[in-house]
């Protein structure tokens, strides 16, 4: 009877695990046999991570790549933000962000969430920055994504990021936990990057940088990098997230011409 009970429990756990994988995809990470070099082998849903021709991130060359006339942006600060530690990153979302959007090619893409990678996934002239924030927008009709990437560098003068401050204060330290009702000054980030002028971002066609690596993303990577203090990154965000940066992918003929 006892052996039968143990077997039943084990089979139940296997079934739950299988159902979770079927719904959410197989577990992935950034090192070893679950790292980026193996993502395409972990789950049939992740096949594009290995065979895709428009994968992200990429490296930008400032002598040949040109920023585009960048999208119209409307970002609204809200008082209710949910922060989640999902085991790979810190992710912020809010139903009150439904009115925030960017517009390009006569289409509105509405703001869904922002998350972080350290070090940066995109490179400038072959060099990583210390942190990259991904602001994810979506066309509700086609479900295509537009992602604005903002790169941060550790300021030797110790300048804090006002955007990052409440995140390191309230972000959950352990996987699966979330905090609520947090104010984050997200609009200020876009005000700062747009100081670079009307052509404030590199535009290119790419993919999600995490499985399933779908190639349905228009990327806008800000040309202006923003400061963050070592205290904010090294002793806080990096501790919560660890290394979570996908290697640079081949361009496969893609250009960043600016237009």
Automatic annotation (TrEMBL):
It is an enzyme of class 4 (lyase). It catalyses: hydrogencarbonate + H(+) = CO2 + H2O. Residues 26-259 form the Alpha-carbonic anhydrase domain. Residues 1-21 form the signal peptide. The keyword Ubl conjugation does not apply. It holds the Pfam family Carb_anhydrase. Keywords: Lyase, Metal-binding, Signal, Zinc. One of its GO terms (molecular function) is zinc ion binding. InterPro entries: Alpha_CA_prokaryot-like, CA_dom, CA_dom_sf, Carbonic_anhydrase_a-class. Its EC number is 4.2.1.1. Belongs to the alpha-carbonic anhydrase family. This is carbonic anhydrase. The lineage of its organism: Eukaryota, Fungi, Fungi incertae sedis, Mucoromycota, Glomeromycotina.
